[in-house]
Amino acid sequence: AQSVTQLDSQVPVFEEAPVELRCNYSSSVSVYLFWYVQYPNQGLQLLLKYLSGSTLVKGINGFEAEFNKSQTSFHLRKPSVHISDTAEYFCAVSVHSSASKIIFGSGTRLSIRP
Amino acid sequence: GAVVSQHPSRVICKSGTSVKIECRSLDFQATTMFWYRQFPKQSLMLMATSNEGSKATYEQGVEKDKFLINHASLTLSTLTVTSAHPEDSSFYICSARQGSTEAFFGQGTRLTVV
Protein backbone atom coordinates (compact mmCIF):
# COMPACT_ATOMS: atom_id res chain seq x y z
CA ALA A 1 0.00 0.00 0.00
CA GLN A 2 1.04 3.57 -0.58
CA SER A 3 1.01 6.46 1.85
CA VAL A 4 1.88 10.13 1.83
CA THR A 5 3.11 12.25 4.70
CA GLN A 6 3.08 16.02 4.68
CA LEU A 7 5.16 17.00 7.65
CA ASP A 8 3.89 20.56 8.07
CA SER A 9 0.22 21.30 8.60
CA GLN A 10 0.81 25.04 8.33
CA VAL A 11 3.59 27.11 6.81
CA PRO A 12 3.56 30.88 7.32
CA VAL A 13 5.94 32.92 5.18
CA PHE A 14 6.40 36.54 4.25
CA GLU A 15 5.58 37.76 0.78
CA GLU A 16 8.47 37.42 -1.68
CA ALA A 17 10.26 34.92 0.58
CA PRO A 18 11.09 31.40 -0.64
CA VAL A 19 9.06 28.44 0.55
CA GLU A 20 9.39 24.68 0.67
CA LEU A 21 6.48 22.36 1.45
CA ARG A 22 7.63 18.90 2.42
CA CYS A 23 6.22 15.60 1.22
CA ASN A 24 7.41 12.06 1.83
CA TYR A 25 5.84 8.94 0.43
CA SER A 26 5.97 5.23 1.03
CA SER A 27 5.54 2.58 -1.64
CA SER A 28 7.02 -0.77 -2.58
CA VAL A 29 6.45 -0.13 -6.29
CA SER A 30 7.08 2.72 -8.67
CA VAL A 31 4.69 5.62 -8.30
CA TYR A 32 3.50 8.79 -9.89
CA LEU A 33 3.66 11.87 -7.67
CA PHE A 34 1.53 14.98 -7.75
CA TRP A 35 1.05 18.32 -6.06
CA TYR A 36 -2.40 19.88 -6.07
CA VAL A 37 -3.55 23.28 -4.79
CA GLN A 38 -6.95 24.02 -3.32
CA TYR A 39 -8.35 27.50 -2.88
CA PRO A 40 -11.23 28.02 -0.39
CA ASN A 41 -14.46 26.26 -1.36
CA GLN A 42 -13.03 25.01 -4.62
CA GLY A 43 -11.85 21.76 -6.10
CA LEU A 44 -8.23 20.82 -6.61
CA GLN A 45 -5.99 22.15 -9.34
CA LEU A 46 -2.94 20.24 -10.53
CA LEU A 47 0.28 22.18 -9.88
CA LEU A 48 2.73 19.65 -11.22
CA LYS A 49 3.40 15.95 -11.62
CA TYR A 50 6.27 13.52 -11.74
CA LEU A 51 5.74 10.55 -14.00
CA SER A 52 9.28 9.63 -15.07
CA GLY A 53 12.45 11.18 -16.45
CA SER A 54 13.95 14.36 -15.03
CA THR A 55 13.64 14.50 -11.27
CA LEU A 56 13.15 18.27 -11.26
CA VAL A 57 9.62 19.07 -12.32
CA LYS A 58 8.35 22.54 -13.08
CA GLY A 59 4.70 23.41 -12.70
CA ILE A 60 2.32 26.32 -12.91
CA ASN A 61 2.52 29.55 -10.94
CA GLY A 62 6.30 29.32 -10.57
CA PHE A 63 6.30 26.16 -8.47
CA GLU A 64 8.72 23.28 -8.88
CA ALA A 65 9.34 19.99 -7.11
CA GLU A 66 12.17 17.51 -6.98
CA PHE A 67 11.71 13.78 -6.86
CA ASN A 68 14.27 12.10 -4.62
CA LYS A 69 13.96 8.36 -4.79
CA SER A 70 16.56 7.59 -2.12
CA GLN A 71 14.82 9.84 0.38
CA THR A 72 11.32 9.01 -0.94
CA SER A 73 10.55 12.71 -1.03
CA PHE A 74 8.83 15.09 -3.40
CA HIS A 75 9.19 18.54 -1.84
CA LEU A 76 7.49 21.54 -3.42
CA ARG A 77 9.36 24.83 -3.73
CA LYS A 78 8.86 28.37 -4.92
CA PRO A 79 11.65 30.97 -4.85
CA SER A 80 9.39 33.96 -4.16
CA VAL A 81 5.79 33.67 -2.97
CA HIS A 82 2.91 36.03 -3.56
CA ILE A 83 -0.20 36.76 -1.53
CA SER A 84 -2.22 34.87 -4.14
CA ASP A 85 -0.35 31.67 -3.26
CA THR A 86 -2.27 31.47 0.01
CA ALA A 87 -4.06 28.12 -0.23
CA GLU A 88 -4.04 24.50 0.85
CA TYR A 89 -1.48 22.28 -0.87
CA PHE A 90 -1.82 18.53 -1.19
CA CYS A 91 0.82 16.01 -2.14
CA ALA A 92 -0.51 12.81 -3.73
CA VAL A 93 0.74 9.44 -4.95
CA SER A 94 -0.57 6.84 -7.34
CA VAL A 95 0.81 3.60 -8.71
CA HIS A 96 1.12 2.96 -12.42
CA SER A 97 -2.37 1.67 -13.11
CA SER A 98 -5.50 3.25 -14.55
CA ALA A 99 -7.58 1.75 -11.76
CA SER A 100 -5.24 2.93 -9.06
CA LYS A 101 -6.43 5.24 -6.33
CA ILE A 102 -4.79 8.57 -5.82
CA ILE A 103 -3.77 8.82 -2.19
CA PHE A 104 -3.52 12.28 -0.66
CA GLY A 105 -1.46 13.66 2.14
CA SER A 106 -3.07 15.58 4.96
CA GLY A 107 -2.37 18.92 3.33
CA THR A 108 -0.27 21.98 4.16
CA ARG A 109 -1.84 25.37 4.61
CA LEU A 110 0.40 28.04 3.15
CA SER A 111 -0.29 31.49 4.52
CA ILE A 112 1.49 34.50 3.09
CA ARG A 113 2.08 37.55 5.24
CA PRO A 114 2.54 40.97 3.62
CA GLY B 1 -5.54 20.76 -18.59
CA ALA B 2 -8.72 18.78 -18.95
CA VAL B 3 -11.95 20.13 -17.51
CA VAL B 4 -14.22 18.40 -15.05
CA SER B 5 -17.55 20.03 -14.28
CA GLN B 6 -19.37 19.28 -11.05
CA HIS B 7 -22.92 20.38 -10.39
CA PRO B 8 -24.41 21.79 -8.25
CA SER B 9 -21.76 23.81 -6.45
CA ARG B 10 -23.99 24.27 -3.42
CA VAL B 11 -27.14 22.50 -2.28
CA ILE B 12 -29.29 22.73 0.81
CA CYS B 13 -31.76 19.95 1.43
CA LYS B 14 -34.10 18.82 4.15
CA SER B 15 -33.27 15.87 6.32
CA GLY B 16 -34.62 12.65 4.84
CA THR B 17 -34.50 13.74 1.22
CA SER B 18 -32.06 12.61 -1.47
CA VAL B 19 -29.57 14.72 -3.37
CA LYS B 20 -27.85 13.97 -6.66
CA ILE B 21 -24.48 15.41 -7.62
CA GLU B 22 -23.22 15.22 -11.20
CA CYS B 23 -19.65 15.01 -12.40
CA ARG B 24 -18.84 15.43 -16.07
CA SER B 25 -15.57 15.29 -17.97
CA LEU B 26 -16.06 17.92 -20.65
CA ASP B 27 -13.22 17.34 -23.08
CA PHE B 28 -12.00 13.83 -22.45
CA GLN B 29 -13.31 10.36 -21.77
CA ALA B 30 -12.79 9.33 -18.17
CA THR B 31 -11.92 5.69 -17.73
CA THR B 32 -12.11 6.12 -13.97
CA MET B 33 -13.92 8.55 -11.72
CA PHE B 34 -13.40 9.07 -8.02
CA TRP B 35 -15.63 10.56 -5.35
CA TYR B 36 -14.14 12.22 -2.29
CA ARG B 37 -15.51 13.78 0.83
CA GLN B 38 -13.70 16.59 2.60
CA PHE B 39 -14.34 17.79 6.12
CA PRO B 40 -13.34 21.33 7.13
CA LYS B 41 -9.59 21.83 7.22
CA GLN B 42 -8.95 18.19 6.43
CA SER B 43 -7.67 16.19 3.52
CA LEU B 44 -9.75 14.39 0.93
CA MET B 45 -11.23 11.08 1.98
CA LEU B 46 -11.78 8.70 -0.91
CA MET B 47 -15.31 7.34 -0.86
CA ALA B 48 -15.40 5.22 -4.00
CA THR B 49 -13.85 4.51 -7.37
CA SER B 50 -16.01 3.91 -10.39
CA ASN B 51 -15.31 2.65 -13.88
CA GLU B 52 -17.75 3.16 -16.72
CA GLY B 53 -20.32 0.40 -16.97
CA SER B 54 -19.32 -1.40 -13.80
CA LYS B 55 -20.21 -1.17 -10.14
CA ALA B 56 -18.33 1.27 -8.00
CA THR B 57 -15.72 0.07 -5.55
CA TYR B 58 -16.38 1.60 -2.15
CA GLU B 59 -13.81 2.28 0.52
CA GLN B 60 -14.11 0.63 3.86
CA GLY B 61 -16.65 2.33 6.08
CA VAL B 62 -18.56 4.00 3.25
CA GLU B 63 -22.20 2.90 3.06
CA LYS B 64 -23.02 1.71 -0.45
CA ASP B 65 -26.77 2.07 0.03
CA LYS B 66 -26.45 5.60 1.30
CA PHE B 67 -24.02 6.91 -1.28
CA LEU B 68 -25.19 5.59 -4.63
CA ILE B 69 -22.71 6.00 -7.47
CA ASN B 70 -23.59 5.58 -11.10
CA HIS B 71 -21.05 5.81 -13.90
CA ALA B 72 -23.34 5.60 -16.91
CA SER B 73 -20.95 6.84 -19.56
CA LEU B 74 -17.32 7.76 -20.10
CA THR B 75 -18.13 11.39 -19.37
CA LEU B 76 -20.67 11.25 -16.56
CA SER B 77 -20.76 9.94 -13.02
CA THR B 78 -23.35 10.74 -10.37
CA LEU B 79 -23.34 10.51 -6.59
CA THR B 80 -26.71 10.32 -4.86
CA VAL B 81 -26.85 10.88 -1.14
CA THR B 82 -29.98 9.04 -0.08
CA SER B 83 -32.05 9.92 2.98
CA ALA B 84 -29.62 12.66 3.87
CA HIS B 85 -29.04 13.64 7.47
CA PRO B 86 -27.18 16.59 9.00
CA GLU B 87 -24.07 14.45 9.53
CA ASP B 88 -23.87 14.02 5.74
CA SER B 89 -23.24 17.74 5.39
CA SER B 90 -19.83 18.10 3.83
CA PHE B 91 -17.85 19.13 0.76
CA TYR B 92 -17.98 16.46 -1.93
CA ILE B 93 -15.45 16.45 -4.77
CA CYS B 94 -15.28 14.29 -7.86
CA SER B 95 -12.29 13.63 -10.06
CA ALA B 96 -11.88 12.00 -13.44
CA ARG B 97 -8.96 10.20 -14.94
CA GLN B 98 -8.06 9.16 -18.46
CA GLY B 99 -5.46 6.45 -18.42
CA SER B 100 -3.16 6.07 -15.47
CA THR B 101 -1.65 9.48 -14.87
CA GLU B 102 -3.14 12.54 -13.22
CA ALA B 103 -6.75 13.07 -12.25
CA PHE B 104 -8.67 16.27 -12.83
CA PHE B 105 -11.02 17.60 -10.22
CA GLY B 106 -14.44 19.16 -10.24
CA GLN B 107 -15.17 22.36 -8.36
CA GLY B 108 -16.78 20.55 -5.47
CA THR B 109 -20.29 20.53 -4.01
CA ARG B 110 -21.09 22.00 -0.61
CA LEU B 111 -23.97 19.93 0.79
CA THR B 112 -25.87 21.24 3.77
CA VAL B 113 -28.61 19.09 5.27
CA VAL B 114 -31.04 20.94 7.53
Shape of chain B: globular
Portion of residues in helices of chain A?
under 10%
Q: How many angstroms does the end-to-end distance of chain A come to?
A: 41 Å
Low-confidence segments of chain A: none
Assembly of the depicted chains: heterodimer
Mean pLDDT level of chain B: 92
Q: Tell me the Rg of chain A in angstroms.
A: 14 Å
Unreliable stretches covering 5 or more consecutive residues of chain B: none
Largest sheet of chain B: 7 strands, mixed
The helix-strand sequence of chain B is: EEEEEEEEEEE
Largest sheet of chain A: 6 strands, mixed
Q: Please count the helical segments of chain A.
A: 0
Q: Kindly report how far apart the N and C termini of chain B lie.
A: 37 Å
Provide mean pLDDT of chain A, rounded.
92
Proportion of strand residues of chain B: over 45%
Secondary-structure-derived class of chain B: mainly beta
- Gyration radius from CA atoms of chain B, angstroms: 13 Å
Kindly name the structural category of chain A: mainly beta
Q: Please tally the β strands of chain B and state the result.
A: 11
Can you count the beta strands of chain A? Answer: 12
Secondary structure layout plus pairing:
The complex is a heterodimer of chains A (114) and B (114).
Chain A (H helix, E strand, L loop, with lengths): L2 E3 L4 E5 L4 E3 L2 E3 L4 E8 L5 E7 L5 E3 L5 E5 L4 E6 L8 E9 L7 E2 L3 E6 L1
Parallel strand pairs in A: 2-12
Antiparallel strand pairs in A: 1-4, 3-9, 5-6, 5-10, 7-8, 8-9, 10-11, 10-12
Chain B lengths: L3 E4 L2 E4 L5 E7 L6 E7 L5 E8 L5 E2 L8 E7 L2 E6 L8 E8 L5 E3 L3 E5 L1
Parallel strand pairs in B: 2-11
Antiparallel strand pairs in B: 1-3, 3-8, 4-5, 4-9, 5-6, 7-8, 9-10, 9-11
